[in-house]
Design a protein that fits this description.
The protein has 23 helices and 13 strands. With 665 residues, it is α/β, with parallel strands linked by helices.
Length: 665
């Protein structure tokens, strides 16, 4: 019984710590947020290597608390390094301008070197954890031990979700990790020392983050201005400013410009943030305002700290959630829809290269906005564009939906934002009535050459299809580190790497990533959606394990066929057609489409794993395959997100061919 409990705790730590690092590291290491998938991949590699080393007699987990302490110190030291990007980087990263930082450290190091350091440190941190889980699973039958492992992982996801809901600070996450790691060593001589290290890590993080507020998405720091304005920094990067419109007349004129010309009876503000757009709409006489903001902490800061307190006005309704998801549900027409400089800045999805705002600026998203406009309505898109091609992309995307006749734009000074795009049926009449406005607004080009984002290729910040050079260099470096680690710590000999489980791991990571992006599109790119998706996937795996333990399956052959068919259906199915369904109908349809291939894949894994003779090698190979799947996920930048289904299908077909070539059982 005690070994079951310890296995569940160790598995809990593995998922809980992984999610913690994905949020914590980018808060202290500048620009790593744009490569958050790197932390996920590193954790898989570390766990995989640990599983491959589970047959060794020496116990590595005894050093885990000290590894955690060293890791914490190194990451906090990296906070004092200025991260530099290559001048020929092919993707825009907001942190390129160091002036946007809360402070600029004197020491400099390249982003590629920093990613190498972070990747290596995460791998080393997870190796002892993987080895301990592998050793514990060896005490049980393969499938039963794996079920306990998944159960602990599920508890880890749920617990982290609960802490995120209550905006628990990072030192709480690390205390939970350190304390549970100490409990695992309860019979060891270093038990007291391990608990002391856990407390020390907690204190170090707590002291270093005394001025940080944690939201479910990133760390937040506030800087008060002499004019009572409030600057908001997320993950050390300037995000937005709660402007004091009584003092800053330039900002007031700029935010108020759209409201001078158009009907503002009913206004929808997408990305309302701390409340600048809400304040401008109120000052202009808007009759009713729906304000949508994804981050509850930033919304609360605006409600309490904005100099004009716009959210307290009874003409304003606040909605916390994903903008695209809100537009799915909305049905009443709006006279104005304002995109309030909505951008992700320093945050990506947990499992993919998709940013929080990517699904807001696709052609399909703007078509939804057009649907919500009244007969004389207008959409206003405010943005701080850093490059000519990005401004051209936004203008082309809007004009592709509204048409050139109903689209105009204007560039402004760079303060707070520098581009305004106007579009909608109400624009034509206003231009005819106000020639002075018509003279200052520009028409979009007749034929745009910029790739327009879609729900399948939602990469607003990529100039063109393809993996940017910076990402390619990074992936090549991380692949070299991974191969070196595998050969150095677990040589490829003696059947150490199981190709079958390796291919299953690669395919499953791709499948999981596509499931997360699909549900983010349909239900919103919020942390809660991600938590529910991860939990649902683990529940499906548990259900598959239970079924395989209860029913004797001689061969997974028919399951490969069912899996291939489900993947082809998912690839061909028009996901956007589900957007018009009600919540429960959409949830049922999405659950079936996304869940069926995951369930079949979990069944195949369970049947094969049930009869494996080398638990550590099988799980280690599976996680190393997930590492490769994480690298392949970046291919969606070139081929689109649906291509992940085809890549997963190819891996499963290769696994089937390999399965047929030998007597696996």
């Amino acid at each position: 019984m005690m070994k079951k409990f310890v296995l569940i705790i160790a598995s809990f730590i593995s998922l809980f710590l992984e999610l913690s690092l994905i949020r914590w590291v980018p808060a202290h290491v500048f620009s790593v947020a744009f490569f958050s998938n790197v932390i996920l991949i590193a954790s898989f590699l570390g766990l995989g290597l640990g599983f491959l080393l589970s047959g060794k007699k020496w116990e590595m987990f005894r050093v885990f608390p000290w590894f955690l302490l060293i890791f914490t110190i190194v990451i906090l030291l990296l906070e004092n390094i200025q991260i530099t990007l290559p001048s020929n980087a092919q993707t825009w990263i907001w942190s390129y301008y160091q002036g946007n930082r809360l402070y600029a450290p004197a020491f400099k190091i390249s982003i590629i070197a920093v990613l190498g350091i972070v990747f290596t440190m995460v791998v080393l941190l997870f190796i002892p954890l993987g080895q301990r889980i592998g050793k514990l699973m060896a005490w049980f039958s393969p499938l039963y031990g794996y079920t306990l492992n998944i159960l602990g992982s599920l508890f880890g996801v749920i617990c982290f979700g609960i802490l995120s809901f209550f905006n628990a600070p990072a030192f709480v996450w690390f205390f939970v990790t350190g304390f549970l790691a100490g409990l695992i060593l309860y019979k060891d001589k270093i038990f007291i020392a391990a608990l002391f290290v856990a407390v020390l890590v907690t204190v170090i993080i707590g002291v270093s983050e005394k001025n940080i507020i944690w939201s479910p998405y990133y760390s937040i720091q506030l800087l008060k201005g002499e004019d009572k304005s409030l600057s908001v920094y997320v993950n050390q990067l300037f995000h937005q400013k709660a402007v004091n419109f009584d003092k800053d007349l330039n900002a007031g004129d700029k935010y108020g410009f759209p409201y001078k010309w158009f009907n503002k009876g009913r206004v929808l503000i997408i990305g309302s943030g701390t409340g600048n757009d809400v304040c401008a709409a109120l000052k202009s006489g808007a009759g009713h305002i729906d304000a949508v903001e994804i981050d509850p902490v930033i919304l609360n800061i605006g409600r309490k700290e904005h100099p004009q307190l716009p959210y307290d006005n009874n003409r304003v309704r606040m909605f916390t959630g994903d903008a695209r998801s809100f537009m799915h549900r909305a049905s009443v027409p709006y006279d104005m829809i304002v995109y309030g400089t909505l951008d992700s800045h320093a945050n990506l999805s947990v499992t993919s290269s998709i940013r929080l705002d990517n699904y807001v600026y696709t052609r399909e998203a703007l078509q939804e906005a057009r649907r919500l406009l009244s007969a004389e309505g207008v959409m206003v898109l405010l943005f701080s564009v850093p490059t000519d091609w990005m401004s051209a992309r936004l203008i082309d995307t809007v004009s592709s939906v509204f048409g050139n006749e109903e689209t105009r734009y204007i560039f402004t000074d760079p303060y707070l934002f520098n581009l305004m795009i106007f579009a909608g049926p109400g624009l034509t009449r206003v231009l005819a009535e106000h020639p002075d406005l018509s003279r200052v607004l520009s028409e979009p080009p007749k034929e745009g050459m910029i790739k327009i984002p879609s729900d399948d290729w939602p990469y607003l910040y990529l100039e063109k299809r393809g993996i940017p050079r910076l990402y390619l260099i990074t992936l090549l470096m991380l692949a070299c580190i991974s191969i070196t680690a595998i050969f150095a710590l677990s040589p490829l000999k003696g059947g150490k790497i199981n190709l079958f489980f390796f291919l299953l791991g690669c395919a499953f990571l791709l499948l999981e990533t596509k499931s997360v992006t699909t549900l983010s599109l349909l239900f919103g790119s919020t942390w809660l959606v991600n938590a529910v998706v991860f939990s649902a996937i683990l529940f499906l795996v548990l259900a598959a394990n239970w079924l395989v333990m209860k029913i004797r399956f001689k061969s997974p052959a028919w399951l490969f066929g069912a899996l291939a068919l489900s993947l082809i259906i998912s690839y061909l199915f028009p996901t956007a057609s589900l957007l018009s369904l009600g919540f429960f109908s959409k949830a049922a349809a999405t659950g079936f489409l996304a869940g069926l291939p995951i369930f079949f894949a979990a069944m195949i894994f369970a049947i094969a794993f049930k009869s494996t003779k080398h638990i550590g090698a099988a799980l280690g190979s599976n996680l190393l395959g997930a590492v490769i799947g994480g690298f392949l996920e970046y291919g969606s930048m070139a081929f689109g997100l649906k291509a992940l289904y085809l890549a997963a299908l190819a891996c499963y077909l290769l696994a089937w061919v390999y399965y047929r070539s030998l007597d696996y059982a």
